[in-house]
Amino acid sequence: MRLSSRAAGALGAVLMGLAIAVGAFGAHTLEGRVPEARIGTLETAVRYQAYAGLGLVAMSLVGRLARGRAATAAAQAAALLALGVLLFSGALYLLVAGGPGFLGMVAPVGGFAMILAWLWLAIAIWREPLT
Q1: Phi and psi of 34, rounded to 5°?
Q2: Which end of the chain has the lower number of beta carbons within 10 A, N or C?
Q3: What are the CA-CA distances from residue 43 to residues 50, 62, 71, 87, 90 (Å)?
Q4: Sign of CA dihedral 97, 101, 102, 106
Q5: How far apart are CA 8 and CA 46, in angstroms?
Q6: pLDDT digit string (tens) for 103-127?
Q7: Cα dihedral across residues 91, 103, 48, 85: positive or negative
Q8: Spatial CB neighbours of 36, under 8 Å, sequence gap ≥ 6
Q9: What are the backbone angles phi and psi of residue 101, rounded to the nearest 5°?
């Protein structure tokens, strides 16, 4: 599974824009309407979505600068990061919206995928430095 540099960069930018929009929505609309703990959950989801958005832009740049296996690893790491943020932030957003409690067990899987994405990229860059 790989995500092209172009797709990773575009997805990262979209995730950043959405993180800002959802964060603003939460701050201005949900206060007083959902429990305070759920506001904290929303803030966590938004924060990690923003991290992932910036990470995808960075991985896109690495993919464009790298050659060979490092470029392939950047595309694989980007796909893993995208999947991770979908699972992590997605599960938290659904919990805030009143989704079932088992979603609390999905979020750590997404977090683990995001950690693996960064480690995968680090190993690839270590083995084959950028040009």
Answers
A1: -130, 155
A2: C
A3: 11, 28, 33, 16, 13
A4: positive
A5: 18
A6: 999 999 999 999 999 999 999 888 8
A7: negative
A8: none
A9: -60, -25
11-46, pLDDT tens digit by residue?
A: 999 999 999 999 999 888 887 888 888 899 999 999
**Residues 87, 113: contact at Cβ < 8 Å?**
yes
Whole-angstrom distance, CA of residue 2 vs CA of residue 83:
11
Residue type, 101: G
**Two structure tokens written together for 112:** 């683990």
- Give the three-class secondary structure for 4: coil
So where are the chain's domains? Answer: 5-127
